[in-house]
Fold each of these.
Amino acid sequence: MALTIQKQWYESLFENYGRKYDNEVFTQGTIGECDFIESELNFDKSVRILDVGCGTGRHSIELTKRGYKVLGIDLSESQLSLAREKAKNSNLNIDFRQHDARNLPFTNEFDVAIMLCEGGFPLMETDEMNFEILKNVAKSLKEKGKFIFTTLNGLFPLYHSVEEFCASTAEDGNATYRSNTFDLMTFRDHNITEIEDDLGNKKTLDCNERYYVPSEITWLLKSLGFTKIEIFGAKLGAFSRNDKLTTEDFEMLIIAEKS
């Protein structure tokens, strides 16, 4: 008898959800975010960039337009299909590959890795799996490589309702979130996410995402050989080193360098 492998919620979520995903509120900061990335790279066009959890390729495409060499990886073939289509329409030649970020085939190949808008991390079902993503990114980077990523700020749910925050930022046609419960023992937010995909199918998914506190991120990265680790508040489309992380920030921005 054939075994049916149950898909994880994040696999189901991103099936045929590229065009609607590009209209979500949280994907509208691409230009400003790439401005920040460029400044962090000192506008050095010779660097090789790995875009982890690239989705529909919005950061990969914008950075390629600016003259950078980017390789985008994602677990979702339907997201990658749209990324390739968008790149082709812009006459850009970008290498988009399907990979699981927990098992990347690269070793000391990239100068910079970016992982924005929860690109895989911290969506995995266990802390160990999330750690594997960080470990594989670290392995993919050259010595003195830089890792720029955002993740969910564990300080936020201690002071605010995640459900109310998501409802306050959503627009018509966006995903909706309900029945949020934040577990203080695991720092995971469990919720029911409802979306309508690009084909008009309505999906109801039982999701859970891991929120991290700054000290956890610092320790995880130190254990992987990152020595310079800086954490800031992440403002959509307006990343800045001037934004000290507070309990008001839904996401945090991490900039880490390998020794």
Amino acid sequence: MAGSIEPLLDELDRSYQEAQERMSDPAVYNDRREAADAGRRLKELEGPHRLGQRWREARADLDDARADGDLRELIPELEERLVSLEEELKLALVETDPADTKDVIIEIRQGVGGDEAALWAGDLHRALTRYAERRGFKIDPIGSSPNESGGYKEVTFGIKGEGAYSVFKWEGGTHRVQRVPETESQGRVHTSTATVAVMPEAEEVEVEIDPNDLKIDVYRSTGPGGQSVNTTDSAVRITHLPTGLVVAMQDEKSQLQNRQKALRVLRARLFELEREKQRAELDATRRSQIGSGERAEKIRTYNYPENRITDHRIKLTVHQLDRVLQGELDEFTEALGAEERKRALGE
């Protein structure tokens, strides 16, 4: 047992020492981006490093007990402790996504199904914001395009709090609903979809945007029916020329505020684009991702007549649709997180 873990611990000691040295290097300290990165790395290694020290202490105690006849009765207890510390260490050393600690920006859009899809986008928005509130996160509305029927063509909001991305990353993809729409006189079940994009919020130091790469248009805000809702050109559309990404924002009364919100969303999208590129390179060698979080990927089906939800990535079905739509999503978050750790350990 010791053989397999000792080299790991030596490697961990080396990495921890390097991270400490990097933190105290003036060149790193004076560069905001480098300093933020170094601080994150050190924080990441602190827990595993402490566990490693506890494992070594337990290992030394066990060696002493085996060598000293008077301490023999302690051997089973110490062996058990060593095994349990080893398990903890393996889990702690599973590489986590560096974005897990970040705030997130979520975009929900109606998919197929017309008005019913827009209403479903509204239901998902309510479920996710309630879940965020239950977990103590702060919700930050960014922008929305309401639909005349009371739902949303699109709604964008931020969720702030330590570890927000690690909780909400599992919600990215296509959410499919099967239910009888209120307008359906025959009582037939219709299938509609809404897509969710979950992006870690990028800090300015992580994504620098060259103003020369932006085409900025201003126009008048419009309401659900297309009518103009104010008399000044306060709505903003930003096109990022190198990638063709377009972000439009019209919820605020001032052009400056709409512009700041649009840049925030653009920064998150560019950050996610870069991460996708890195993931694609990784995936060439590792094909076991639970879900890519891409909008096109169908992740869950919500069946109203049977009060049933199925998560297709881990084949988990629960018959508590009503509770999940009130924001009780912990069961899915925990199961998906556990599956990710299991796979990472396997690798």
Amino acid sequence: MTHSYDYVLQAEDVAIHYGGVKAVDGVSLTLKKGQIRGLIGPNGAGKSTVIDAITGRLTLTRGQVTLRGEDVTALGVVDRRMRGLSRSFQRTSIFGGMPVRRQVELASHKMGVKDSDADAEAVLKELELLPLANVTAEDLGYGEQRRLDLALALVGRPSVLLLDEPMAGLSVKESLDLARHLKAMTSSWDVSVLLVEHDMDVVFGISDVVTVFELGRVIASGAPAEVRADPRVREAYLGSAA
């Protein structure tokens, strides 16, 4: 039997019910070190709700969340973040009127990182934002703003990163650029990624494993090629795009 500490993240039988509505109904997910798991499914399938449940924004109806072998189910968002569980949102959380470097340094300082300047420098370098360090965020292109948003989620070197549609609103070139950074980061920073994304080319291009949601449940999970070929997945979600 596989033990929980074989995974940096393990969500077991996670359920979120609102009265009679089962937004998420008994979902189990794992992440290995350095792995990218893509999470796809139609709108309303429960993808963002699962991320909210894993990060502690929602109280579980039932289930358990384990981070690097530690049960964090009873912990709130901040405590989970301090233990290495970070996330980004569909809308960027950057401060438009503040320079890039200053934002990342402040985020790092707030995380309690001893050398927040060095931490910020490393994050900016990793995401190729150093040349823009002194630029005010509102003057960045949208793709650069998404990268800054990712930088804010990366301060303090989290072990797990949950991304909710990071490619939303990006051009094809910007999406591929961000995907390249994500893929490189998993190996260079040992960070594991749970990626909710509508861009199928990105999901199937960079994910090690793809999980498909429908009506709050997992209907398929496995290697990208295997999932893409699954008749149920093609019928439920991919359609002719498969």
Amino acid sequence: MVLKFRPNLFNHEIGIDIGTVNTVIYLKSKGVVVNEPSVVAVRNLDRKGQKEIIAFGSDAKKMIGRTPVGISTIRPLANGVIADFEMTEHMIRHYMRMATGGGKFFSYPRVAVCVPACVTEVEKRAVVEVTLAAGAKEAFVVEEPLAAAIGIGMPINEPQGSMVVNMGGGTSEVAVMSLGGIVINQAVRIAGNTLDDAIISMMRQNYTLAIGEGTAEEIKINLGSALPMEQEIKMDVKGRDLVDGLPKVVHLTSVEVREAIEPVISQIEDTIRSALEQTPPELVRDIVDQGIVLSGGSALLRGLSLRFADSLSVPVHVAEQPLFSVALGLGKILEAPQEKNKYQ
């Protein structure tokens, strides 16, 4: 869906990958210029529900779990779709200003914005509307798996099968593409955040220790793995004892973290297997030759590509810049007029 207006010579063209966890913005001719958490911190002003925004992005993320009464942190997106329209609008406006320098001549950019391929038309329209409300002159939607595949450099316009698994914070999406379109698409609303939740749950059950999402993310990055490691690692985790309410430190190993996140990884693996089972045989042959490519922040989990390759009997590679694959794909669409015309 597109709303067009008369061109303005001063317009920027930008691509926005609005994720559940991070928002990445690509500015045409400059590359990725914004990579910030999708978090907004607000202060409640009165009982009528009026709010004042006090921080965005990294500054707001530092406040998660540390706010006093009257201040709250909000993630405006859940599972790749808009959960809070007003806060999403404020967040996109803020990041567009960051990307374009905030000058008055550059306040109405043309925007390519990403959505998961599994969302409804209503959810797609909501993304376009919130982008226009945030100050875009024109907005059009690109499906995430297509953008990720273009950003990675996969030959999706050729008559051959390309498979990408985009694992973000809220959604894991598996897509098989050929001739510039999606042939098979499967998505599960489990991804990086689900891994964090599994770690939080394990700490409560095994150690009666309450930890926040920031600590869980740190554990996932430092200790998380999909396969046994040559040398297992440990770290001290600090939190609140659920029994007596006092501070407590426990020694956690990578083996325990791997056991905690195993069910989540298995679910993603089953989704990939299911997509492969539905893929036409000729395209499966191409995928075996070319391999599956993993993108998104969760693709960085240690040993994930080897784990999937072993269980699915298909070569699996991690994208060169998994966090930016979608934004780089949007950039390539904006840079190439013939690509852009396909989506407008």
